[in-house]
């Protein structure tokens, strides 16, 4: 992005250190507790304005647009915003029920524990050409699990990762194609990808040699979406149809031995071709891919049950869901610690103090940690909103990081055009 990104990208870490040395005389901040002793933080410089990042919309305090206030989607809108800013605790406090138990009521347990669950998924996927796994756009744990699935399926011939979030452009290369040579995802590659756990999923896919592909409906500036109280069915149908068409085209362009993983939100992974009582075609993307294009995916839902045990479990679907999904992943319920979902402080990641002088700021800040050597156009390894006096920590694995602080926007930048609902189930 602007000055600091150019410094790190062009001049490297030495220039970053030189800049940091002018900031309150503090060049480095080493995590003080023994648990995080191998995490090194390098301060990039003074607090910057959100506008200086050229992506100010990331740093806006979450707020429900006026058109959606009182709407049933309002809690989800807030929770998605707080998830992007590393504060799922605030999303849960805003009324989202996606962090509360929803036990699976069937006895159809296939596997218990993370390794057994991944093994069972890999066994089912060995005969599939297409695997579709869904996520909640609020719950970052789903993205971490998808990362594990992507990793486990790579030896089985899965070589292409398509994600709902990847921006799709007309008549020119998609952003993920332009950045295919880079080891990190960029902020311009997709919206949900801006969230660091999603970014880590894509980093893993790149490291493993996956080709990234966009399949979302191409943005049309002349298309007008209906309001929150109007009929969205045609807009949803158009989107699902376009997504399925793009995936079918992608599959036809792939070599016969290549296999595809699709990462989508919520009901897009539903493969039941439903016709409403009024004759309306209610089929979602996965159903259209199967019915209209002849590609029968293995569908995995992470959004249908949770909290059935204190570890992840894999279920066969209930009779009600049997036509919609092939497998149901049931994650344990996690609490919150240091302002973060507590699963974040596992798998080698440590709770790391916000460095001074950012920690003692008398205003809200968004703290971002970038892998040393990556520019500020990369998706950070961690990002978290911090209010004065809060005991909020970064979640980082051992390594060296460039840390910057962004002064957030405390009021909406504008009233955005309403988008297709993100929870179509």
* Mean pLDDT metric: 89
- Elements, N to C (H/E): HHEEEHHEHEHEHHEHEHEEEEEEEEEE
Can you count the helices? Answer: 10
The backbone outline, from C-alpha atoms, is globular
Secondary structure class reads alpha/beta
With strands numbered from the N-terminus, the spatial order across the biggest sheet is 4-10-11-9-5-8-6-7
Helix-residue proportion: 25-40%
Strand segment tally: 18
Q: Work out the radius of gyration.
A: 22 Å
**Uncertain ranges:** 1-27, 31-36, 415-424
Beta content: 15-25%
Separation of termini?
37 Å
The biggest sheet amounts to:
8 strands, mixed
Structure description:
This protein is of the alpha/beta class and 425 residues long. It is 25% helix and 19% strand. It is built from ten helices and 18 strands. The chain has helices at 3-11, 13-21, 74-84, 88-93, 114-125, 140-153, 175-178, 196-207, 233-253, 285-293; strands at 28-30, 39-43, 48-49, 109-112, 130-135, 158-163, 211-214, 259-265, 298-301, 313-315, 327-330, 336-337, 340-341, 350-353, 365-371, 382-386, 393-396, 399-407. The strands form four sheets. It has an eight-stranded mixed sheet with strand order 4-10-11-9-5-8-6-7, sandwiched between helices. Helix 6 (140-153) packs parallel to helix 8 (196-207). The longest helix is centred in the middle third of the chain and has 21 residues, at 233-253.
């Amino acid at each position: 992005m602007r000055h600091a990104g150019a410094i790190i990208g062009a001049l490297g870490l030495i220039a970053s250190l030189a800049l940091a040395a002018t900031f309150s005389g503090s060049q480095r901040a080493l995590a003080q507790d023994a648990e995080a002793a191998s995490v090194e933080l390098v301060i990039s410089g003074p607090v910057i304005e959100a506008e200086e990042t050229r992506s100010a919309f990331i740093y806006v305090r979450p707020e429900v647009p006026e058109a959606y206030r009182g709407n049933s989607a309002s809690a989800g809108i807030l929770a998605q915003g707080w998830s992007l800013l590393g504060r799922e605790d605030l999303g849960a406090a805003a009324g989202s029920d996606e962090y509360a138990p929803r036990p699976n009521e069937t006895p159809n347990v296939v596997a218990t524990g993370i390794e057994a669950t991944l093994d069972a998924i890999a066994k089912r996927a060995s005969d599939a050409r297409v695997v579709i796994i869904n996520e909640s756009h609020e719950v970052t744990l789903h993205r971490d699990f998808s990362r594990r699935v992507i990793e486990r399926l790579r030896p089985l011939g899965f070589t292409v990762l398509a994600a709902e979030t990847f921006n799709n452009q007309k008549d020119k290369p998609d952003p993920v194609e332009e950045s295919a040579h880079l080891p990190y995802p960029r902020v311009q590659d997709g919206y949900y990808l801006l969230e660091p756990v999603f970014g880590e999923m894509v980093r893993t896919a790149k490291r493993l040699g996956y080709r990234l592909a966009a399949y979302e409906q191409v943005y049309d500036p002349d298309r007008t979406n209906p309001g929150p109280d109007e009929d969205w069915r045609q807009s949803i149908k158009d989107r699902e149809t376009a997504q399925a068409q793009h995936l079918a085209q992608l599959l036809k362009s792939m070599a016969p031995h290549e296999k595809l993983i699709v990462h989508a939100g919520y009901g897009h992974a539903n493969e039941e071709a439903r016709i409403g009582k009024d004759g309306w075609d209610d089929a979602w993307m996965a159903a259209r891919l199967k019915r209209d294009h002849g590609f029968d995916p293995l569908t995995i839902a992470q959004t249908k049950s949770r909290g059935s045990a204190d570890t992840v479990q894999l279920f066969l679907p209930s009779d009600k869901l049997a036509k919609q999904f092939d497998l149901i992943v049931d994650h344990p319920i996690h609490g919150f610690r240091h302002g973060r979902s507590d699963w974040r402080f596992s798998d080698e990641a440590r709770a790391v103090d916000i460095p001074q002088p950012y920690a003692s700021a008398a205003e809200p800040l968004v703290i971002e940690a970038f892998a040393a050597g990556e520019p500020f156009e990369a998706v950070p390894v961690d990002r978290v909103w911090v209010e004065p006096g809060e005991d909020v920590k970064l979640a980082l694995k051992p390594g060296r990081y460039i840390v910057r602080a962004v002064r957030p926007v405390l009021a909406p930048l504008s009233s955005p055009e309403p988008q297709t609902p993100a929870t179509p189930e």
